[in-house]
Specification:
A hairpin with a 2-residue loop joins strand 7 and strand 8. The longest helix is centred in the first third of the chain and has 18 residues. Helix 7 packs across helix 8, helix 10 crosses helix 11 and helix 11 packs across helix 12. This protein is α+β, with helices and mostly antiparallel strands and 469 residues long. It has a 4-stranded mixed β-sheet. Strands 1-2 form a two-stranded antiparallel sheet. Among the domains are: 54 residues, Membrane-bound Lytic Murein Transglycosylase D, Chain A, CATH 3.10.350.10; 177 residues, Muramoyl-pentapeptide Carboxypeptidase, domain 2.
């Protein structure tokens, strides 16, 4: 039999009076039944992936679930990133609040001069160089080298194979199997044609290999052998006893590594002078990770029409560290290749960073998309130039990853070997021939990266809470 409600209240008050000396609070009186016991799930650390996916292993690159053109930052959050940060009203970690607080703190330090620009902002910009008048095509004669193919000649003059055949129908005979005779000349109509190659003789020394000799003179080892196969019929029969090789070199690239040093040092001086022009103010700060970050006082990649074209200038902002490395790498690439067509620059970040749709990264000013160089506009990829570009970024020692579809890494690897790169170095730099999911190399697989490379720079000395260093 149930007790009256008033009796229940009286009993409750009596019990409280007995325990009030111990500081117990009065009990709540209610007519409702007690709520069932609920067990809350433990919070899961954010790994930068979408719900329902397994966490990414440390170092393994995950594919983006937004578009095939992007990848997620592959490194999980550290304890430093998850503990001690800004918290919301519920006491849970709030990464957005932490980023916002850091952004305000850094902006205040910049405004007060605590973080100096180093490069004076009031310094007047140098007068832009006058735009050169458009060059007109001119007819030149090209002397065919031993073993040279029509596609190689087309690439050298940046014309199409069809045009070459049209200009030389009588000489080439057939478009499918053109007749190229070493020592003969063909006509080429080109804009700003390169100077003719010069023939030199090189005496083989003890310890020389085809690759070493090719690298020293900046030529392809396969071409080097073709030029001399009448004298050395077996490729592995290179002996050091006063064997003389014929080598056709570009006048500007004699004896240098990547064209950086000539006998009189003029090329090195030209490169040094070009690099000195890459002055960047030092208060553009990246904060956070590539797929959850901001950019404070972002720096726009400057216009350099001879080097590159910005496809979307409003998305070409980066940190001081990233912009300096990009400028230096592209300057070295252009100096090494003398590539006449400017690179096509895609997304870097917005002026203040943050989400840049449809990309999932490109949020903290450390990522850049660059179209692969082409032999001609809309033509085949120039893999020799592509390797020079990739190598120029690797040589900065400030690159975390370069994303490129795995099946194309094989072609890149072969282009690198043809230009003298060793297997030992390429094992550190390129993921191929290992599988696409292995944790190896700077050049890594990411789905959709088959027309451009995606370069991710490391964190600079002034960048804050910078993940994926």
């Amino acid at each position: 039999m149930s007790r009256p409600r008033n009796l229940n209240v009286a009993l409750a008050l009596a019990l409280w009076l007995c325990g009030c000396q111990n500081g117990l609070p009065p009990p709540a009186v209610t007519d409702t039944k007690p709520a069932p016991l609920r067990v809350e799930a433990a919070p899961v650390a954010d790994t930068g992936q979408t719900t329902g996916e397994p966490p990414t292993a440390s170092g393994e690159v995950a594919e983006d679930d937004v578009v095939e053109d992007e990848v997620v930052d592959e490194l999980p959050q550290t304890a430093e990133e998850t503990d001690g940060g800004e918290t919301g009203e519920t006491g849970e970690y709030n990464p957005e609040a932490e980023l916002e607080a850091l952004e305000k703190e850094i902006q205040a330090a910049i405004d007060s001069g605590e973080i100096p620009a180093d490069v004076a902002e009031e310094e007047p910009e140098p007068e832009p160089e006058p735009e050169p008048e458009p060059s007109k095509p001119e007819w030149v004669k090209h002397e065919v080298l031993p073993g040279e193919r029509l596609e190689q000649i087309a690439a050298r003059y940046q014309v199409s194979e069809k045009a070459l055949f049209r200009w030389n129908k009588k000489t080439l005979k057939s478009a499918k199997k053109p007749k190229l005779v070493a020592g003969k000349t063909i006509k080429v109509r080109a804009i700003d044609p390169p100077p003719p190659r010069e023939l030199i003789e090189y005496t083989v020394k003890r310890g020389d290999t085809w690759a070493k000799i090719a690298k020293k003179h900046d030529v392809d080892p396969d071409e080097l052998w073709k030029w001399n196969r009448r004298k050395i019929k077996k490729r592995n029969n290179l002996k050091a006893k006063r064997t003389k090789l014929r080598i056709w070199i570009d006048p500007a690239g004699d004896g240098g590594d990547d064209g950086e040093a000539t006998g009189d040092g003029k090329s090195s001086k030209a490169l040094s002078a070009a690099l000195r022009k890459n002055r960047v103010r030092q208060n553009g700060i990246s904060i956070g990770r590539p797929n959850r970050g901001r950019l404070v006082n972002g720096i726009q990649l400057p216009e350099r029409k001879k080097l590159y074209v910005l496809r979307k200038p409003e998305q070409a902002y980066g940190s001081s560290h990233a912009i300096k490395q990009i400028l230096d790498a592209i300057t070295r690439y252009q100096h090494a290749t003398k590539f006449r067509a400017p690179l096509q620059i895609g997304a870097i970040s917005k002026r203040k960073g943050g989400r840049l749709r449809p990309h999932r990264s490109h949020q903290s000013g450390r990522d850049i998309d660059i179209r692969l160089p082409r032999v001609t506009k809309g033509g085949a990829i120039d893999w020799r130039a592509t390797w020079k570009l990739v190598h120029a970024f690797i040589e900065t020692n400030e690159v975390q990853y370069i994303f490129l579809t795995h099946r194309l890494q094989r072609t890149l690897y072969r282009a690198a070997r043809a230009q003298g790169a060793s297997k030992k170095d390429l094992a550190k730099w390129i993921q191929w021939p290992r599988k696409s999911k292995t944790n190896n190399g700077i050049v890594r697989h990411a789905k959709g990266h088959d027309t451009h490379i995606h370069v991710r720079l490391t964190c600079g000395p002034r960048d804050r809470s910078c993940g994926g260093r």
